[in-house]
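Reopening: C-alpha cells for the NAP complex, inputs below.
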Amino acid sequence: MSRVLIIGAGGVGGVVTHKCAQVPEVFSEICLASRTLSKCERIRDQLKRRIEIARVDADFPDEMMALIRCFKPDLVMNLALPYQDLAIMDACLAAGVHYLDTANYEPPNEARYCYTWQWAYRDRFREKGIMALLGCGFDPGVSNIFCAYARKHLFDEIHTVDIMDCNGGEHGHPFATNFNPEINIREITQRGKYWEGGQWQETDPLSVHQPFDFPGIGLREMYLMYHEELESLVKNIQGLRRIRFWMTFGEQYLTHLRVLQNVGMTRIDPVEFEGRRIVPLKFLKALLPEPSSLGVNYKGKTNIGCMLEGVKDGKPRKVYIYNICDHAECYQEVKAQAISYTTGVPAMIGSLLMLTGAWMKPGVFNTEEFDPDPFMDRLNRHGLPWIVEDK
Ligand SMILES: NC(=O)c1ccc[n+]([C@@H]2O[C@H](COP(=O)([O-])OP(=O)(O)OC[C@H]3O[C@@H](n4cnc5c(N)ncnc54)[C@H](OP(=O)(O)O)[C@@H]3O)[C@@H](O)[C@H]2O)c1
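Re-run output (same inputs, fresh job):
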C-alpha cells in the first residue's frame, strides 16, 4: 500500500495515472499534479477510481516541497519535462522520498542530453536512504532492460546493439510529434552520435539511414540518432564494441521538419518579436497538437526493440527482442496513443517494483542495473508483451 505523486498531466502522465489506478493493491493513493489543473481534471474524470489532483509548477522546489508535505507520497514520478528533473530530485532529497523519471535532465538553453547532472546526486540519495530510477520509459527504459535480459539469459558476450524505434502509425495531422514537441524536436535536430571501437563517433543530423523490415509494420527507413540510453549502456553492459540508436521518420515528417529548421522555427535561443523575447521552438510548440490529443484517430502500430549480436556457448548469436503496440487498442484502454502508452506502462512498472521492494536500493540508478526478470514479467502482464527471435 503506497502513496504515489505523479507530476505532469500530459500524454505520458495520463497513461501512468490510468495504469497506477489499475493496481490499487500497490498504488493505494494517487495524486496527479501539473501546471494546468484542468488537464489533471480531464484525466481524473476518465477514471473509475477516486484520485487527488493538485496544481504545481515543478520548476520551483518550494512548490514541490509544499505539495510533498501536504500529500506525503512514498514516491514521486516525474512525467513533466526533463527541465524539471533536478528541481524535483532536490525536493525528493529534502523530503526523503523516492524518485522516478523517463527522460534525463537537459538545460533549457542548451540541447545536451547527458546523465552527468543526475548521476551527481548518487551519494546524496544513498546517504539519505532513498532511490532514484532514471529513464524508466520505453527508450530509455525497456530498451536498457532488453539489453540486461539478453546479458543475463541469451549471451555470454554482447558485441553490438542496435536499438530500433519504429512508429508505423497515422494520426491524421499534417505534422505532429508523439511526445512533447519541444523536447522531441530538440532531440531529433541534434547531431547523431554512436559508440564504436571504444569511442563516440559523430554524424550530421539524420544523415545516416537504412531500411528495416519491422515485424507487424513492414519496411521503413530508419535514421541514426543519439539517444540517452547509449550513455548508460556503454558503462553498464561490459564488452560492447558498438551501440547505435535508430528511429523511423516518414517523408512528410522530414519535409516539415526541414522547412521549420530552414526558417528558424526550431531555434532554442530567444529572438526579439514585437518588443518581447520569444523562443521560436516554444512558440511552435504552442501551435502543434498536444501529444495527449493525438490518440483519438490514431491507427497502426509501433515496434520498438533491440537487435543484439554476440557469442553464446562459443558460437556467434544474433537475437532480436521487441514489442509491438497498437495505437487504437491503447486509446480504447487509457485514452492515449501508443507512444504515451509505451512510455507510461514501464514508468508504472518501475514504480511498482521500487515500492514493493523488488527493485529497491538507495542511490541513483538506470534500469539495466537491476534484475530484468521481474520487469520483463510485468511487461507481459501490463500490456507490453515482448518477443525474442533468433536471427
Ligand atoms: N523514455 C521514453 O521512452 C519516453 C518517450 C516519450 C516521452 N518521454 C518523456 O516523457 C515526458 C512527458 O512527455 P509527454 O509526451 O507526456 O509531454 P506532454 O504531453 O507535453 O506533457 C508534459 C506535461 O508536463 C506538464 N509540465 C510542464 N512543465 C511543468 C512544470 N514546470 N510543472 C508542472 N508540470 C509541468 C505540462 O503541463 P502544461 O500543459 O501546463 O505545460 C504537461 O501536462 C517528457 O519528458 C518526455 O521526454 C519519454
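DSSP finds 14 helices and 18 strands in the chain. Residues 2-138+343-374 form a domain with the Rossmann fold fold (CATH 3.40.50.720). Marking as resolved unless the reporter disagrees.
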